[in-house]
Amino acid sequence: MVLLVPKFRNRLVIKWFVPMLAKPNIRVTLDQLGSYCWQHFDGKTTVQEIGERMSHDFSQPVDSMYERIGKFIATLARDRFVLL
């Protein structure tokens, strides 16, 4: 899965500079587990439920899934892809 993220967030830059760019977005490629998490982030499903589903679907221990999801969410929040 690929996320498209705008290169700029400033309204003036978006209005005047972005239309001249050939590629106004940055492409962020997610791995298999990151894509799975992203598809299940709906505002209703808890991290615990996502971890249990991932553990079942990928045949890995639940504890490692929670650690992986936590790092993924922290990275998304740091890069401002999601708001917590």
Blueprint of the fold:
Blueprint: E1 2-6, H1 11-16, E2 25-29, H2 32-40, H3 47-58, H4 62-78
Which features characterize this protein?
single chain, 84 residues, mainly alpha, 2 domains, two-stranded antiparallel ribbon, 4 helices, 12% strand
Task: Please explain how this structure is put together.
By secondary structure, the protein is mostly helical. Strands 1-2 form a two-stranded antiparallel ribbon. Helix 3 (47-58) crosses helix 4 (62-78). The mean pLDDT is 84. It is elongated. The chain starts with a strand and ends in a 6-residue tail after the last helix. The chain has helices at 11-16, 32-40, 47-58, 62-78, and strands spanning 2-6, 25-29. The chain is 52% helix and 12% strand. The longest helix has 17 residues, at 62-78.
**Helix fraction bin:** 40-55%
Indicate the structural class.
Answer: mainly alpha
Order of helices and strands: EHEHHH
Main pleated-sheet profile: 2 strands, antiparallel
Which regions are unreliable across 5 or more consecutive residues at pLDDT < 50? none
Total domain units: 2
Instruction: Strand order, main sheet: write it out.
Output: 1-2
Strand element count: 2
Q: State the helix count.
A: 4
Determine the strand fraction and express it as a percent band. 5-15%
- Average predicted confidence as pLDDT: 84
Described by the principal axes of the CA atoms, the overall outline is: elongated
**In angstroms, what is the radius of gyration?**
16 Å
Task: Report the span from N to C terminus.
Answer: 22 Å
